[in-house]
Every structure is written in C-alpha cells, then in structure tokens.
Design a protein that fits this description.
The chain is mostly helical and 294 residues long. It has one domain. It is built from 11 helices and 2 strands. The longest helix has 33 residues. The relative contact order is 0.15.
Length: 294
C-alpha cells in the first residue's frame, strides 16, 4: 500500500504556518538581542512588575523602537527574501500612498477615541479638570508622548497585521485571518495593568478595525495612522491607554462611573462606550472597503 499524498490544501497551510512561526521566532530573538542589554541599564533597581505597570518614557521608547526594528527585519527576511513578497503584497504600496494613508488612518483613530470620551461626559459624569501646568507644557508633553507611541504602534501593526495577516489571508481567507489575529492581538494585552474581560474584548474589536484598515486602500499606512490616532488621542486627553496612564500637564480626565460604561482605570477601551465607538469604526471601515475594493 503506497502512501497517499497530502491533500493539496494542506501544503499551503503548512507553509503558511511555518512562515508565520519563523516570523515570530525571528522577531522575538531580535527583540531580545536589541532590548535586553539596554533594558538592564534603564531598569536597574526597578522591579519587572512596577515597570510593566508604570514604564518610564525612555524605556517605552526603547521598547517600541526595538520591537519595530526586530519585526521590521523579520518582515524583510521572511516576507521579502524568503517568500519574495513585494511592497504591494505587504500593503506598503497602495493606491492612497503613504501620506494620504496615514491621514485617513489618523481620522479613523482620533474620532472614535474623542467620541468615546465625550460620550462619557454626557452619560457617566466624566470630564476634564485643570491639573496644573500651562497649555504650552501640555503641547510639549503631547508631542513627546506621540513620539513615544508612534514606534510601538507601527511595531504592533507589523506584528499583528502586516506579514502574518497577508499570509493567513491568502490561505484561510481574510475573514478567518482577521478574526484569528484580532484574538491574538487581545491575548498579547492580557498582562496590561487593570485589564478586564471587557477590555480584552474591545482590544479584539480594535484588532478587527485595524485589520480592515490594513486591507483598505491605505494599507499599512492607514492601519498605523488609526492605531496611533486612537492611542495618542486618549493620551493627549489624559485618559489611560490600555491600562497605561500618561502624565499629561494642564488637564486630567475623570473617567466617571459606572466602570462597565466608561472603562475606569483601564481607559475607554475597557467600557461599553469604547465598544460603541470601535463598532462604529468597524462598520465604517468595512463600508469603505466594499465601496473601494483594493
């Protein structure tokens, strides 16, 4: 009795799994090589738990840059060199171009974040209070915060959209691939400070939204802009971002109550108002893709 060849569909699935596993393993190895030596110098006398809950700005910047360089290199080695994928395949070159793509993404990120926080004012007693400092100090700190958030946002797009989503989308179909990597995106935040089940569910929903942005005419640039726009807006308006607080002068945002509505100390991503805002962006992104197919 001769061995039967494997079904034709198993072969591309096996290759896809191998490519994604190699991508993540290579990225993690490179992160360790880039980050660990620097981290030892920056975190002397600080416990890992304290650093995770309250990372210093310098450590957050170094961590984001290390992730960006590592998974950028992994994308090039696995995607470009091994799989021979080009910029269009990886959705770096798209119809909108990089500038318009980022601009569209920023709109997609800023509006829902601002809407979620504003809804808290009218429904849950949330609001802003003066917290010392000047408007100029606020602007300077917001600029620094955006510079810290940008590398991390692009790195996470490389890790959870980017090459893995392209490979999985070709084998499993976009819908299944989006669902899988959105769940993985949520799992990656499971150790964030003050995390809740509602917060993880909203992060998975954000993963769907960002994946749709990735498959939009703006590609990776739109996904990056949306990710950065959401995080930067929450931080600039003095709300926690996925459980991480930011020290912003001039204003402070009181989250209001109940927590299930506003998100409490986890930030708007942990509440029903965040769910509503993110659902709105998912619907808009899906309609954009249907109206302007890539």
């Amino acid at each position: 009795m001769t061995d039967q060849p494997p079904p034709r569909r198993q072969r591309p699935i096996g290759r896809a799994i191998a490519a994604v596993v190699c991508f993540y393993l290579l990225g993690l190895v490179l992160v360790s090589l880039l980050l660990l030596p620097v981290a030892k110098r920056l975190t002397s006398g600080v416990s890992p738990a304290e650093l995770a809950a309250h990372p210093t700005p310098l450590f957050a910047l170094v961590q984001g840059l290390a992730l960006l360089l590592a998974f950028g290199a992994a994308t090039w080695i696995v995607g470009v060199r091994a799989l021979h994928l080009g910029a269009a395949d990886l959705r770096w070159r798209t119809r909108l171009g990089w500038a318009r793509g980022i601009g569209a993404g920023l709109v997609f990120g800023i509006l829902p974040a601002a809407i979620a926080m504003t809804l808290g004012v009218f429904t849950a007693g949330a609001g802003w209070i003066h917290d010392g400092g000047s408007l100029g100090q606020w602007g300077l700190q917001v600029g620094k915060t955006v510079l810290i958030l940008a590398p991390a946002a692009l790195a996470e797009e490389l890790m959870f959209r980017g090459l893995p989503l392209v490979i999985a989308g070709r084998v499993l179909g976009r819908g299944r691939a989006i669902l899988f990597f959105s769940l993985l995106f949520a799992v990656a935040h499971i150790r964030n400070p003050e995390v809740t089940s509602a917060g993880l569910a909203n992060i998975a929903l954000a993963g769907i939204w960002l994946s749709l942005a990735f498959f939009s005419p703006g590609g990776m640039w739109t996904a990056f802009g949306a990710h950065l726009g959401w995080n930067a807006t929450l931080a600039a308006l003095a709300a926690p971002v996925s459980g991480l607080p930011f020290d912003i002068p001039y204003i402070d945002y009181r989250m209001g109550a109940p927590t299930w509505l506003t998100g409490g100390t986890f930030g708007p991503e942990g509440g029903l108002l965040g769910t509503l805002a993110l659902t709105m962006t998912v619907v808009l992104a899906a309609r954009w893709i249907r109206q302007e197919p890539t």
